[in-house]
Every structure is written in structure tokens, then in C-alpha cells.
């Protein structure tokens, strides 16, 4: 049984035991056919219309969230349901970060946002107002990058709306901890294995680069994680026999601070390989990836990575951000190529192009929190502490080898923080 369905049935069973009635337990991906429901705001009008007629609260949980329903009911009973409430366990940034668009750069710790894995809740009066607001005032950014921060920013509404109310009973400790007796929720450490790891030979790795990085970034890959790949190729805008690289006939272009090289051509080359999965670029821990891929069926069209969204309030699409690495099953690659997907221009953002293609083809974009588009210190430390990360991205203002050894080398050890406290310019 899938973890989401297992959790849903456990909540219903607890409710029947305590209340002698069944609650409304909804899986967002089954609320409607729209793939963007995971970003909450597109789903909120439907949730409000269906459930706020008979309910007082909408509580959001993750797959890894454990619930003590009796404690949860006691916590919610402390708040009057006629008021607007935004409840959760607060997270705070220690420094400005790119994934939050450097919000509150003067004092990033001043803004709190909920730890989604610990659960969070909206009173129905607040949920109703937000559901109405999204129809005429969407978020300022079209991009959904770090949902828990962006939801809090949208609800806060530059001080016109409620800030997050900290609730100690929304706990981030594991259920086995001795200090969780009063907790309404606890968390499971994110599991990255479902069985025997995928064979090393079943993964083909495509590393996307360009000439300007041949002398600095490519040697870092060779120095760290290249040894863990049974089949790996470097794709570039030139042929360099010393690496070696493969030129696919796609010119490199500068787009902001990123060098873009459309990888659909690499997909075409990959299809001739016998590998079951393909991986595109990043700073990786391939043994952990092999364990994660044991959770997926290679006979299905699978795409996995850190999921972002674009224009999700107006029928947009989800995509896997390329910096954190993109994983495709062989069947997904076959479907992408058969669907005629391709970059419309040489400077097209290839991860977004692939996202549009996956949406058109009906291939789900699967999120894993173990992939990271940014550097470790761009994320809250307590969130990373729950993980054995698979990837990080970007080389600015850090020592990449030290980062690899600290976060991605086995065995992972407790070491001093190795990050340079400098601001990354956009």
C-alpha cells in the first residue's frame, strides 16, 4: 500500500475510534485531475467549497507526518473557529537565501513559515478568504520553488494578513522520541529505500557542461562522484577529447548566470543505451540514488527530482529543476522522444521545456526532497538533518569538495558547518 493511502486509512481508523465518525481525508493529487494541486493554492477553492460547510479547520499533512488525532483535536479546540488562524511549527532562515528570493534580507529570521512535515492548519474563515483572493490576486511570482515559504508569504500579505502562529504540539521529532507525548504530529525520517538498490549498471548518467567549465567544474565531478557511475558521458558545446566530452550540435548560450544546453538531444542518445534510468547533471550521491530508485517501477514512465512549478494558478505546469538533477526511467525517455518534444530555441530553459513536455504527455512529475537545486546553507539546517541528501547544486562561494565530503560522501559524519557566509548575487 502506498504511504499516502496508508496514512489516510490510519487517520480514518483513529477518528472512528475516538469520534465514532469518519473525517474527510483527502489526497491532493486525487482532489481533481489538475496536476498543480500539490501547490495548495489552486486546490484551496475546491477544498473550501467541499469541506468548510461542515468543518472548521483544514489541516495539511505530508506523507511522512504521523498524527495523534486526540492531541490534534485538543490543540485545535484552543482556538476559536470564528477567527482567521494560520497554525504550524515555525521555521526561520538564518540568512538571506536564493530559494526565498532573498526575502527579509535585513533580518531573515524575522519571518516564520511552517514546517510542512510537522503539519499545518488553516481555520475555515481564513481558508475561505484566501480561496476568494486567489481568483483576483495571484502570488507575485509565477514560480513555485519553496512552497512552505511562499504559502506563508501569501497568507501574511505584507502584514495585512495573519502571521504564522507557533503551535508547539506540531512537532518535528520522530514518533519514537521520548519527548513527544503531547505532540499532535510527529515525523518519520524521510525513507529513501523500498527494497534492493537498483544495479549500478542500470543507471546512465549524462553530465551537462560547456567549454567555460571544462577546467574547473568537470574536474570536481571526476574528483568526487564520477567513480560511482558505471555509465557516464559529458555533453558540451564542443568536443574535448581530454575529458572526453560529446558535442550534440547544440550551441551554448548565456541565460542569466546559467549556461543552458538543451538536453533533449542527450535523451535521444541515451535511448540507445540499455540503462533503465538516466540522470542529468548535478553534484550527486549515486549510491543513495540507487536506493531511492528501488521505490519506482522502471516499466512505468517515471520522472523524479526537485519539483518546481510555473503558473500553477492558471493551468501551468510542474517541472523538475535541472540543477538538482533529473531522473527519467527508460520508458519516460521513450515517451518523450515519441512525443516529439524539443527545445524551441537554443537558449530555452531545458528543465522547463521538459516540464511542459511531461505535462502534455501525461507523465507525472514526482518530487523528492532529497534533490536540491541550491547549496546546503540555502536550506534550513533542521530540514537537511532529516535527510541523507542525493544532490546539491551551484559552486558559488563554497568549497565544493568540502561540501561533497560533508553531505554526500559515505559514511556521513557530524562535522563543523563548512559553508561560507556570503551572499550569492542573482
Q: What does this 3D model show about the protein?
A:
This protein has two domains: 3-187, Spore Coat Polysaccharide Biosynthesis Protein SpsA, Chain A, CATH 3.90.550; 200-367, Alpha-Beta Complex (Spore Coat Polysaccharide Biosynthesis Protein SpsA, Chain A), CATH 3.90.550.50. 25% of the residues lie in helices and 18% in strands. The protein has twelve helices and 23 strands. The chain has helices spanning 3-19, 44-51, 69-76, 124-133, 147-156, 217-223, 264-270, 286-292, 330-338, 350-361, 381-384, 400-408; strands at residues 57-60, 65-67, 86-88, 90-91, 113-114, 120-123, 143-144, 165-166, 170-174, 185-187, 203-208, 231-236, 245-247, 253-255, 258-260, 277-280, 283-284, 303-305, 307-310, 317-320, 326-329, 365-367, 391-392. The strands form seven sheets. A seven-stranded mixed beta sheet has the order 13-12-11-16-21-18-22. A four-stranded mixed beta sheet has the order 1-6-3-8. Helix 2 (44-51) packs across helix 4 (124-133). The chain is globular and about 70 Å long.
| Terminal-residue CA separation | 44 Å
CATH architectural name of the largest domain: Alpha-Beta Complex
Q: Please, what is the average pLDDT?
A: 85
Shape verdict? globular
How many strand units? 23
> What is the CATH T-level topology of the largest domain?
Spore Coat Polysaccharide Biosynthesis Protein SpsA, Chain A
**What is the alpha-carbon Rg in Å?**
22 Å
Biggest sheet layout:
7 strands, mixed
Task: Identify the strand order in the major beta sheet.
Answer: 13-12-11-16-21-18-22
CATH class category of the largest domain: Alpha Beta
Q: What's the number of domains? A: 2
Helix content: 25-40%
Structural class of the secondary structure composition? alpha/beta
Low-confidence stretches: 256-261, 413-426
Query: Count the helices. How many?
Result: 12
Beta-strand percent range: 15-25%
Amino acid at each position: 500500500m502506498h504511504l499516502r493511502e496508508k496514512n489516510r486509512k490510519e487517520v480514518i481508523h483513529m477518528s472512528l475510534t475516538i469520534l465514532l465518525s469518519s473525517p474527510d481525508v483527502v489526497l491532493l493529487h486525487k482532489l481533481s485531475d489538475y496536476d498543480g494541486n500539490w501547490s495548495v493554492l489552486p486546490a484551496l477553492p475546491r477544498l473550501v467549497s467541499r469541506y468548510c460547510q461542515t468543518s472548521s479547520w483544514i489541516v495539511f499533512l505530508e506523507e511522512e507526518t504521523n498524527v495523534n488525532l486526540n492531541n490534534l483535536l485538543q490543540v485545535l479546540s484552543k482556538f476559536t473557529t470564528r477567527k482567521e488562524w494560520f497554525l504550524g511549527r515555525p521555521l526561520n532562515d538564518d540568512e538571506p537565501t536564493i530559494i526565498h528570493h532573498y526575502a527579509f534580507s535585513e533580518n531573515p529570521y524575522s519571518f516564520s513559515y511552517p514546517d510542512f512535515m510537522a503539519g499545518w492548519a488553516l481555520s475555515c474563515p481564513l481558508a475561505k478568504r484566501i480561496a476568494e483572493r486567489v481568483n483576483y490576486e495571484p502570488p507575485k511570482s509565477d514560480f513555485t520553488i519553496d512552497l512552505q515559504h511562499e504559502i506563508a508569504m501569501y497568507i501574511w500579505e505584507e502584514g495585512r494578513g495573519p502571521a504564522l502562529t507557533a503551535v508547539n504540539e506540531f512537532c518535528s521529532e520522530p514518533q519514537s522520541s521520548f519527548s513527544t507525548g503531547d505532540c499532535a504530529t510527529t515525523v518519520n525520517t524521510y525513507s529513501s529505500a523500498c527494497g534492493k538498490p537498483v544495479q549500478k549498471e542500470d543507471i546512465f548518467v549524462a553530465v551537462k557542461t560547456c567549454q567555460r567549465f571544462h577546467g574547473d567544474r568537470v574536474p570536481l565531478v571526476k574528483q568526487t562522484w564520477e567513480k560511482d557511475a558505471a555509465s557516464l558521458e559529458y555533453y558540451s558545446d564542443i568536443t574535448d577529447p581530454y575529458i572526453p566530452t560529446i558535442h550534440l550540435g547544440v550551441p551554448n548560450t548565456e541565460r542569466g548566470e546559467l549556461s543552458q544546453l538543451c538536453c533533449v538531444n542527450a535523451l535521444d542518445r541515451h535511448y540507445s543505451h540499455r540503462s533503465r534510468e538516466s540522470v542529468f547533471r548535478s553534484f550527486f550521491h549515486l549510491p543513495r540514488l540507487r536506493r531511492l530508485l528501488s521505490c519506482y517501477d522502471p516499466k512505468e514512465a517515471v520522472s523524479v527530482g526537485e519539483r518546481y512549478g510555473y503558473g500553477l494558478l492558471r493551468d501551468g505546469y510542474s517541472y523538475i529543476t535541472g540543477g538538482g538533477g533529473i531522473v527519467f526511467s527508460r520508458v519516460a525517455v521513450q515517451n518523450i522522444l515519441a512525443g516529439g518534444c524539443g527545445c524551441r530555441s537554443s537558449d530555452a530553459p531545458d528543465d522547463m521545456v521538459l516540464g511542459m513536455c511531461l505535462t502534455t504527455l501525461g507523465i507525472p512529475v514526482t518530487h523528492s526532497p532529497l534533490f536540491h537545486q541550491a547549496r546546503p546553507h540555502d536550506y534550513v539546517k533542521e530540514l537537511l538533518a532529516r535527510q541523507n541528501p542525493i544532490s546539491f547544486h551551484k559552486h558559488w562561494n563554497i568549497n565544493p569538495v568540502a561540501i561533497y565530503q560533508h553531505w554526500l560522501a559515505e559514511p556521513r559524519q557530524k562535522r563543523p558547518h563548512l559553508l561560507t557566509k556570503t551572499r550569492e548575487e542573482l
